[in-house]
Amino acid sequence: MSKTNLIGGIDKFIAESIADVRAQAGGEPVLCALSGGVDSSVCAALAHKAVRDNLTCLFVDHGLMRKNEPEEVVSVFRDGLSIKLIHVDARERFLTRLEGVSDPERKRKIIGEEFIRVFEEEALKLGRIGFLVQGTIYPDIAESGADGKAVVKSHHNVGGLPEKIAFKGIIEPLKTLYKNEVRECGRALGLPDTMTNRQPFPGPGLGVRVLGAITADRLAVLKEADFIFREEIAAAGLDASLGQYFAAIPEQRSVGVRGGARAYGFTIILRAVHTSDFMTAGCARIPYEVLERVSERITAQCPEVSRVAYDITPKPPATIEWE
Ligand code: XMP
Questions:
Q1: What's the distance, CA 159 to chain centroid?
Q2: Does the Cβ of 311 fall within 6 Å of ligand 1?
Q3: CATH number at residue 16
Q4: How many domains does the chain have?
Q5: If you measure from the C-alpha of residue 26 to the centroid of ligand 1, how many angstroms do you get, rounded to a whole number?
Q6: Which residues, 6 or more positions from 63, have their beta carbon under 8 angstroms from its beta carbon?
Q7: What range defines the domain where residue 103 resides?
Q8: pLDDT score of 160
């Protein structure tokens, strides 16, 4: 059974939330940080129903999203829903700041800080903003540091709230919902399945899947390999049954043979897990034929890759992400 905080059904929730957001905004301009993830996407769609042209979405493209996802954000929100969307191409900026940084926590911190910096710079250009609308959901509040457990990874999506922007307050229309309800809400608002069914994706994005110091070449290879993996998982009809699945790329190269010659290529690690709460996870028993097809396609379409490995470790002792 899925968890629920919804009383009275999704349509009632949506109607009440639209009225609430409209009342809270009180005719002032509203800004939304759109990341392309489920929560911020649903939040933006809902806020748009409430305040229409008073909503501006700011999408900071840090270059660490999965292949095709930035384009999808623009096409769904700007072209499809006619929402005012500012698409900031900050790819170079993030790569430059991350150059030579290999510690995962440091990478997370830089990505979070840089995100806020870019967000603030762009938001300041907009002039007066009344409210910030955020896709905070119930587990974000329930899990934020109340249990006193040791921090394994600092899971900040962004580095905090922008301090340089003077806004009257924050509107959080999804804060009583669990993830499954947010997805349901997104479907009811007419968002495409590709967006409402999106897997959890770490805030620092592929920044923690390009292991060690991030380089443009490994990032590009990872995007392709990850895309192929996702395509094959979907083609095999496995996507809905998996908690999370993705590719990662370590720094370590490995020896391969290509065209009869020695090739010292990249390794791609595939990871797919079953999980209900992401606190523990089991390795998914993906059929060998699917894994073989993924490996064949990755090595054929990404000549820089000479080896593909499948991670069979549960959590614990491993974590879901490699970093
Ligand atoms: P781990 O790797 O700790 O991941 O088993 C558990 C879940 O958290 C996601 N994850 C993150 N999410 N910022 C996030 O918003 C992060 O820095 C981060 N690191 C891991 C991971 O994808 C999985 O769903």
A1: 15
A2: no
A3: 3.40.50.620
A4: 2
A5: 36
A6: 90, 91, 92, 94, 95, 219
A7: 10-196
A8: 64
Report the alpha-carbon distance of residue 318 to residue 248 in Å, rounded: 14
Query: Which ligand 1 atom lies nearest to the CA of residue 108?
Result: 17
| CA–centroid distance, residue 272 to ligand 1 (Å) | 14
Residue 283 sits in a domain whose CATH number is: 3.30.300.10
Q: Do 36 and 179 belong to one domain?
A: yes
State which H helix or E strand residue 220 sits in: helix 216-235
Among the listed residues 86, 74, 70, the one whose alpha carbon sits nearest the alpha carbon of residue 33: 86
CA torsion sign, 192 to 198 to 201 to 206?
A: negative
- pLDDT tens-digit profile of 125-160? 999 999 999 999 998 887 665 444 455 655 444 446
Is the pTM value of this prediction over 0.70?
yes
Cis peptide before 316 (omega within 30 of 0): yes
CB 321 near ligand 1, within 6 Å:
yes
Mark residue 264 as left, alpha or beta (left: phi above 0; alpha: psi -120 to 50; beta: remaining). beta
**CA 92 – CA 1 distance, rounded (Å):** 44
Ligand 1 centroid vs 11 CA: distance in angstroms? 31
